[in-house]
Amino acid sequence: SPDKFNATSYDAMAMAIVTLQAFAGMGINAFIVSVLCVAWVKKKSFNSNEKILMFLGCSRFWYFCIALVHSFLSVIYSSCFYVHPIPQLFATIQFFFNSCNTWVSSCLCGFYCIKIANFRHTFFIYLKAKIDRIVPRLLLASVLLSLLMGILGYDIMDRLFRKSFNSTKPENLWKQNIGMDEHLYPLVFTSGFILSMAFTAVAFFALLLLFSLWRHKRKMQATSGKDLSMEAHIKAMKSIVFFFFVYSINFTCLILSLVYVTKMDVTVAFLILILQYALPGVHSLSLIFSNPHMEKTLLRTLACVKCKVCMR
User: Fold this and answer.
1) Is 206 a domain residue?
2) Which of 124, 262, 279, 307 could covalently link to 250 via disulfide, CB atoms 3.0 to 4.6 Å apart?
3) Keywords for this entry (predicted)?
4) Does residue 160 lie in a domain region?
5) How confident is the model over 105-153, as pLDDT tens digits?
C-alpha cells in the first residue's frame, strides 16, 4: 500500500542520514577528546573548561556510537528490537546520553557566564572564586540526573513495548500508532520537567551575560576607555547565543518526542530524528572553532591530510 511504501522509504532514508550524522559526530567529538588528551599529557593538568569539554566530548562520542549501532541493527537485524529488553536498553542508554549532553552543555554555559560576567554581588563573587571546585560537582549532578532520565526512559519504553504486544503485533518504527496510556503522563511530565530545568538554566545564563555585556559597554562609553574584557564578553555571548539557538531547537524536538512518543506523523517524526542527531554535532563543531587551539589543530590536520592526498 502507499502508506507502507511511504513508511519504508522514510525508514531507509532516516537510517542512511543518521548513519552519516553518527560518523560525522563521532569524528568531531573524537577530535575534541584527542586534542584535550594531548594537551593534558603536555601540561600535566586540566582546567575546569577542559574538564567540561572533555566530559561533553566523551558523552557525545558514545551518544553517536549508540546511534550508529542502533542504525546498523535496524537495517541488518531489525527483529532484535521486538525482543525484550533490547528496545528498553537502547532507550535507557539514549535517554542517558541525551540528558548528559543537555546538562553538561548547560554547565558549560554557566561556566562561561560566571568566569566572564562582571557582577559585584557577594554570591556571584563567591561562585567566581569557587567555580573550579564546583565544576566536578556539577558534572556529577549531571550524571545523576541523566541516570534518572535513563530510568524514566526505560520505564516509558517498557510500558509502550508491553502495550504494543498486548494490542497488536510489533510494527515498523514509523507505523506505530499506540495511544499514550494515562500511566505514562507522570513519567513524561517528570522527564520534560528535568529537561526544562536545563533549558531554563541556559536561558538564564544567556540573559545574565547579555546584561553584564550591556553594563560593561555603558561603563566603557562613559569613561571613553578600552578594555580587553569587552572582547571576551562578546566572544562568549556569540558562543552562548548560538548554543541557545541550537539548544532551543533540540529542546523542542526532545519535548515533542516525549509528548507524542509514538503517536506522530511520519514526516514530523523523521524531521525530529534528523535534528536530534544533527544539532549535537553542529554544536561540537562550533566549540572547535570557538577555541583557538582546537581551531589551529584542526586546520593543521586538514592541511596535512590535503597534502597527503595531493601527493598520491
Assistant:
1) yes
2) 279
3) G-protein coupled receptor, Membrane, Receptor, Sensory transduction, Taste, Transducer, Transmembrane, Transmembrane helix
4) yes
5) 889 888 888 888 777 888 888 888 888 899 999 999 999 999 988 888 8
